[in-house]
UniProtKB/TrEMBL annotation:
Species of provenance: Paenibacillus terricola
A Pfam family assignment: Erythro_esteras
Signal sequence annotation: none
InterPro entries with a match to the protein in the record: Emycin_Estase, Hydrolase/PRTase-associated, UCP036794_erythomycin
Domain of life of the organism encoding this protein: Bacteria
PANTHER family: ESTERASE, PUTATIVE (AFU_ORTHOLOGUE AFUA_1G05850)-RELATED (PTHR31299:SF0)
Designated name of the protein: Erythromycin esterase family protein
Length: 423
């Protein structure tokens, strides 16, 4: 069977010469007809994944009219960058300044030179467009409980009223936990001392007000709602996380899908989205062992609801270097990415030639690849190269993605925080 798999890869794979080459043009002709183009990554610290997603995103924006990029990041920090790329004064004087709010570990995920290049391009692209046509950059994750609460209070303090009272009540409920999510989760899950009622009341106060706002204030009103939605998501996530089961993962991915749908509604009829997230979020969970554990993800949920209007592109690498930490909150390091494990998808792709490759599954004839489950490497922000075997997710690649981009050798991301420590 191994030889049959190798032969099928050889027949399907084509050299990948970058986002401006002919192969990418054919890929984008398929992806460009979708409402949601999901661009994955096998790690949060690999330069090639970021630069290639940026290059594909530019073409989706300029040639196919996509309206915004939504990423696996927090709403408040990404909203500052969004204001910068749209040319608003409060976004910062330059892209580096616009990344100032990315203070939550792992800061390098978005505070990096690769994102700076994209941000400057987006600002220039938006420069002469009316506000309604400017392409945005948003975070759809929900870790920003405290930051989102503070953003809501700051916004509402400039517009006093009953909404401010609801915000203060929610903030006061969280305040005794001292910005400690684990402490709040334990209090809520184990002792029933949560803030769900206060958060829902706040969200109801702020929801849909952007629809009636003045055009000059519309996106800021929408941002207040999205911050309230992030607080609600975070409250639910930290409450379920204490049980250490699949529920907290599912809460997070369902939240990201709902955030994405709110963004689509905000941008109006015909809006289309580019989504940047880890492969574990954008690749359909039903094609992996995640399903056995009761886990769903963004790719699965979107496919179930929107079908062929979703186009998912995964990424992988055989070897190289990556930015990661040895444990949560630890100093970032440039770590080696060992040669892929034998008989994994990445190793078989390498064995068919050391060139970069593009595999497009959606339009291809059925092959043995559609029935084979093999390990597919997934590197997180916490990484131990010496424990490589635990970094592989059993996957049917053509079922997980519509296309797959493989880089034979990759290099670490370029963080802004400071020079990364080399192992």
């Amino acid at each position: 069977m191994e030889n049959e798999v190798l032969e099928a890869i050889r027949k399907l794979a084509q050299p990948y010469l970058g986002a401006d080459a002919a192969g990418a043009t054919a890929l984008l002709q398929q992806a460009g007809s979708a409402d949601f183009v999901l661009l994955g990554e096998a790690s949060h610290g690999t330069s090639q994944f970021y630069t290639d997603r940026a290059a594909l995103s530019k073409r989706l924006i300029t040639e196919y009219g996509f309206r915004f990029i939504a990423v696996e990041g927090d709403w408040p920090a990404c909203y500052t960058l969004n204001r910068y790329v749209k040319g608003y004064e409060d976004g910062g004087a330059n892209a580096r300044d616009a990344l100032r709010d990315f203070e939550r570990w792992p800061t390098w995920m978005w505070a990096n030179r690769e994102v700076i290049e994209l941000a400057e391009w987006m600002r220039e692209y938006n420069k002469y467009k009316p506000d309604a046509d400017k392409v945005g950059f948003y975070g759809i994750d929900m870790y920003s409980l405290w930051e989102s609460m503070e953003a809501i209070l700051e916004y509402l303090e400039s517009k006093p009223g009953s909404d401010l009272d609801a915000a203060r009540k929610a903030f006061e409920c969280f305040e005794p936990h001292g910005r400690d999510e684990q402490r709040y989760g334990a209090s809520s899950a184990l002792f029933g001392e949560g803030c769900e009622d206060e958060v829902i009341a706040l969200l109801r106060k702020l929801q849909d007000k952007w629809q009636y706002a003045d055009s000059n204030d519309r996106e800021d009103v929408f941002s207040a709602e999205m911050n309230a939605f992030a607080v609600a998501g975070a409250e639910s996530y930290y409450t379920t996380m204490i049980r250490q089961d699949a529920d907290s993962w599912n809460v997070r991915d369902r939240h990201m899908v709902s955030s994405l749908e709110r963004l689509m509604t905000f941008h109006g009829e015909g809006a289309r989205a580019i989504v940047w997230e880890h492969n574990t979020h954008i690749g359909d969970a039903r094609a992996t062992d995640m399903a056995e554990d009761g886990m769903v993800n963004v790719g699965q949920l979107l496919r179930e609801k929107y079908g062929d209007k979703v186009f998912a592109i995964g990424y992988g690498t055989y070897s190289g270097t990556v930015i990661a930490g040895r444990s949560w909150g630890m100093e970032l390091e440039v770590m080696p990415v060992p040669q892929a494990m034998a008989k994994s998808w990445e190793e078989l792709l390498h064995r068919t030639g050391s060139d970069n490759k593009l595999l497009v599954f959606r339009s291809s004839e059925p092959t043995i690849l559609d029935t084979v489950t093999l390990g597919h490497r997934a590197i997180g922000v916490v990484y131990h190269p010496e424990r490589e075997r635990g970094n592989y997710v059993p996957s049917v690649l053509p079922e997980r993605y519509d296309a797959f981009i493989y880089f034979d050798e990759t290099t670490a991301l370029s963080p802004l925080s400071r020079e990364a420590v080399h192992m």
